[in-house]
Design brief:
Layout: H1 7-20, H2 31-41, H3 44-61, H4 66-73, H5 77-84, H6 92-101
Helix pairs in contact: 1-2
Length: 116
């Protein structure tokens, strides 16, 4: 099933809302709100690109190759490459697995939203 750019924020918000109930306390803005506001602030394609850049930066900061991330997550290097280039939108499960493998919080991958 292919989702339109308008449907994607709703899917993320719903999935993250249930995930956040079991997560540790989040900063001032909850993760699902950050995703929703970020997607409303910037175009969906730009949002995917920014998430990919943040994932790549976190991977490189740990000094890991895409193959090493594959060993930790099971995410194929080709798919990780597409995510990092902003050509493929990562799902919630993928974001969670990457955050665990890179020893960071999933919220690190979500673009910051400026306060109104």
């Amino acid at each position: 099933m292919v989702l339109s750019a308008r449907e994607r924020p709703l899917i993320y918000s719903t999935a993250l809302a249930s995930w956040n109930h079991t997560a540790k306390a989040m900063p001032k803005i909850s993760l699902d709100n950050r995703i929703e506001k970020a997607k409303m602030t910037i175009e969906s394609e730009d949002w995917v690109m920014e998430v990919g850049k943040r994932i790549r930066a976190a991977r490189e900061a740990k000094g890991l190759t895409q193959f090493e991330v594959y060993d930790r997550t099971g995410i194929f290097p080709a798919n990780l490459s597409k995510i990092e280039q902003g050509k493929q939108e990562p799902g919630l499960t993928t974001l969670r697995r990457l955050a665990e493998a890179l020893e960071t919080n999933i919220s690190q991958f979500i673009p910051e939203v400026k306060a109104d």
